[in-house]
């Protein structure tokens, strides 16, 4: 296994069978995948496509029916390698009668982290995930978004080199979603490798370097996000300092037709709804009492 590879699968297959050993479902079929050190890798696909099965195989929670999976050059079934892995499941299975500090202390003990180091890391992580004001509340009183935050802190308590995130923005509002994406990008800056699954394709497009798309247990697409989302059949032109006039339209149409193309549309570029929402919130904070007034008729 190459030195810069963190995850590698070779012909990885998982077949679920019934009580009598008959094939019930092929959850994953001959998956070949490589995830490099320091990249954010997105695993996409509809429900039942094999994403969760892949994660469980990498964590050693399931054994493959065929093929191999390696993490840090070690077989995925080797439990010791999980000391270098952080995992946030889609539904965090945390003890709801503990508070945030007790939760992180408990998971720190599982990694044999010294008490002084546990307390220091717990305090830092609670501050990072924005729960300093709620650290004494038991998790049963937390909203889903708050449980997602403490779940992420739990996944980072052991300073992992590989962070696996299953639906990391689930239950978060737009502000929390932006915070989560910024944190994932910060993990990359700190040299971490991130494997994330998400149904929210805009989140994946914002943070991932490469993606793999699964369907029916088969790998359907793999590559750089920036290249995969390009529409090679269309050309986009953007300009500033010029007014959109009929004369400009005619000139551009003529130039494009001269080179064998056809002018389709003109218009102004758009932002995303997320960016619009965040901008309005920030402007509202900066200008208390700001209200929307409908234009006079």
UniProtKB/TrEMBL annotation:
Top-level lineage group: Bacteria
Matches recorded under CDD domains: ABC_DR_subfamily_A (cd03230)
Ranges for domain ABC transporter: 7-241
InterPro entries reported in the protein's UniProt record: AAA+_ATPase (IPR003593), ABC_transporter-like_ATP-bd (IPR003439), ABC_transporter-like_CS (IPR017871), ABC_Transporter_VariousFunc (IPR051782), P-loop_NTPase (IPR027417)
Molecular function per GO: ATP binding; ATP hydrolysis activity
Keywords: ATP-binding, Nucleotide-binding, Transport
Protein name stated in the entry: ABC transporter, ATP-binding protein
Organism: Fimbriiglobus ruber
